[in-house]
């Protein structure tokens, strides 16, 4: 649609740059979440506490799916259509929520249990003075 408004020598740089930055950001976010899952795996191996690291590695797959839809839409047209947008953003949102749940579960495992505060015993009352 936008290409009809341009001359043959003109190009939509802002659309191209926006799409490329969005795809690069999605891939970097996915790599970050997967690395977080690998850290949780190492934690589980060393300290023998269940961290659900598999969930943390597979939860961000919707982010990569979003990037794939965006690349496919950009290669066939200038931007995503309505159906592609709904599917891509729904996958991104679901992946974000699942990644957050995995991170919160990992935080519960990593956070040490708080010991109850020791309440000091009340001071002994002094002995009553003898009556005169």
Features:
132 residues; mainly alpha; single chain
The gist of it:
With 132 residues, the chain is mostly helical. The chain has helices at residues 13-47, 53-58, 61-76, 82-110.
| Gap from first CA to last CA | 108 Å
Structural domain count? 1
Rg estimate, integer Å: 28 Å
Multimerization status:
single chain
Estimated structural class: mainly alpha
Coarse morphology: elongated
Helix percent band? 55-70%
Q: Counting H and I runs of at least 4 residues, what is the number of helices?
A: 4
Strand content: under 5%
Mean pLDDT: 81
Low-confidence residue ranges: none
Number of strands: 0
Blueprint of the fold:
Elements: H1 13-47, H2 53-58, H3 61-76, H4 82-110
Give an overview of the whole structure:
This protein is mainly alpha-helical and 132 residues long. The chain has one domain (12-110). The chain contains four helices and no strands. The protein has helices spanning 13-47, 53-58, 61-76, 82-110. α1 runs antiparallel to α3 and α3 (61-76) runs antiparallel to α4. The protein is elongated.
